[in-house]
């Protein structure tokens, strides 16, 4: 087979995937309004006596619709700023809008349920990374990593600071920005274009504090103490990203962690690899461990915090790759065989995209460690 055929097939698949993602963002308001319409229809089918017991219901739907509109304003502004092409614009992803149009035409405008959920997941991550309400959650994970990086930096010889730090699974970029605020040179890596688009917009186009309001919890009716808590809006960003990143240097690279960082220019160049809720995104976590060892300088540190909620443990759409789910004990053993030396190990509690005003909060028991790359690794 001609290798150019494989390249063409890959390019076609990537364009289709990108079009699918942009289409999902574009259709956010339509899918959300449809959900609210269904809720209204369900209410209309209740017995009149039951309707009379819920006099606030229509007001609740109107307020939810206003929240959808606020979310739509953020997402629409994001797509307009990053993707529209013109004589005075340089789109973040050239050709993305036409790819979305092609995808939409091929599926008659439908949005897959899993894509609807991924867009709504971005809203929850905006809470985590860029709202005042997310500060306590960030402190439980990003804060611990920052303290450990500060400890590592304090032990460096003169001239070895600022540190060169890699953050795989950068998400919406707050950990990267926070590490920059400490004066370090940080490179983020993210595979998901859902996250890359939102992070590019917030990091590069935030003009003022509390510029947008998002309502991350309105799409689920479960576990709310009050209707007001379900519909509450959160102002973002809580701090201007440019103020955070000014003391250091920030870069971002898109793509699969293992593939991107197999390149020669990334071998043995980072003082620190910081991973937060990341290693369980691997099909094969050993690939991640090998890559971390490869990119660290001799004596460099890997700071990790997160659970082992393997993303590919259940059958789902995705690449046909072998999946393995290792225990924490097995991961630590493999890391040791690859030349990583455990320096500190703790077990800590950390929430992730958790609604603090909910009857259900997602808090994980996480491994939190620092390992160093031994000589000869």
Tell me what the structure shows.
This protein is α/β, with parallel strands linked by helices and 377 residues long. It has 14 helices and nine strands. α4 packs across α9 and α7 crosses α8. The relative contact order is 0.11. The mean pLDDT is 94.
What's the gist of this structure?
The chain is α/β, with parallel strands linked by helices. Helix content is 47%, strand content 17%. The strands form two sheets. Strands 5-2-1-6-7-9-8 form a seven-stranded mixed β-sheet, with helices on both faces.
Write the layout of secondary structure elements.
Blueprint: H1 3-26, H2 28-44, H3 48-52, H4 57-83, H5 96-106, H6 113-130, H7 135-154, E1 164-168, H8 174-180, E2 185-190, H9 193-205, E3 212-214, H10 227-231, E4 234-236, H11 241-245, E5 249-254, H12 257-260, E6 270-276, H13 285-295, E7 296-306, H14 328-337, E8 340-351, E9 363-373
Helix pairs in contact: 1-5, 2-4, 4-9, 7-8
- Classify the helix fraction into a percent range: 40-55%
Q: Output mean pLDDT.
A: 94
Q: Uncertain segments of ≥5 residues (pLDDT<50)?
A: none
Q: Give me the side-by-side strand order of the main sheet.
A: 5-2-1-6-7-9-8
Shape descriptor reads globular
State Rg: 22 Å
In DSSP terms (H or I, runs of 4 or more residues), the helix count works out at 14
Overall number of strands: 9
Strand content: 15-25%
Class from helix and strand fractions: alpha/beta
Our measurement of the CA-to-CA distance between the termini, rounded to an integer number of angstroms, reads 37 Å
Could you state the order of secondary-structure elements as H and E? HHHHHHHEHEHEHEHEHEHEHEE
Largest sheet: 7 strands, mixed
């Amino acid at each position: 087979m001609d290798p150019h055929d494989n390249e063409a097939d890959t390019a076609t698949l990537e364009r289709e995937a990108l079009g699918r993602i942009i289409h999902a963002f574009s259709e956010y308001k339509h899918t959300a309004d449809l959900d609210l319409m269904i809720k209204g229809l369900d209410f209309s089918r209740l017995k009149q006596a039951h309707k009379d017991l819920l006099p606030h219901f229509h007001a609740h739907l109107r307020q939810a619709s206003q929240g959808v509109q606020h979310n739509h304003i953020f997402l629409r502004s994001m797509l307009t700023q990053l993707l529209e092409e013109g004589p005075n614009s340089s789109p973040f992803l050239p050709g993305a809008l036409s790819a979305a149009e092609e995808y939409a035409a091929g599926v008659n405008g439908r949005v897959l349920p899993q894509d609807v959920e991924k867009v709504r997941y971005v809203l929850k991550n905006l809470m985590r990374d860029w709202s005042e309400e997310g500060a306590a959650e960030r402190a439980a994970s990003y804060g611990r990593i920052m303290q450990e990086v500060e400890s590592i930096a304090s032990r460096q010889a003169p001239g070895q600071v600022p540190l060169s730090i890699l953050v795989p699974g950068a998400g919406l970029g707050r950990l990267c920005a926070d590490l920059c605020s400490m004066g370090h040179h940080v490179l983020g890596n993210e595979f998901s274009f859902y996250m890359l688009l939102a992070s590019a917009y917030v990091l590069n186009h935030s003009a003022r504090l509390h510029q947008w309001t998002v309502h991350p919890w309105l799409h689920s009716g479960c576990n709310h103490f009050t209707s007001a808590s379900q519909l509450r809006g959160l102002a973002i960003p809580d701090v201007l990203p440019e103020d955070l990143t000014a003391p250091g240097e920030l870069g971002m690279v898109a793509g699969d962690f293992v593939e991107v960082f197999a390149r020669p220019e990334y071998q043995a160049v980072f003082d620190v690899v910081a991973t937060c809720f990341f290693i369980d995104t691997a099909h094969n976590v050993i690939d991640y461990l090998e890559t971390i060892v490869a990119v660290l300088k001799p004596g460099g540190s890997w700071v990790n915090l997160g659970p082992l909620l393997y993303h590919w443990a259940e059958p789902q759409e995705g690449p046909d790759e072998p999946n393995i789910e290792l225990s924490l004990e097995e991961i630590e053993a493999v890391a040791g065989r690859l030349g990583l030396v455990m320096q500190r190990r703790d077990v800590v509690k950390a929430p992730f995209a958790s609604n603090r005003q909910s009857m259900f909060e997602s808090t994980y028991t996480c491994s939190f460690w620092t390992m160093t790359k031994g000589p000869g690794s």
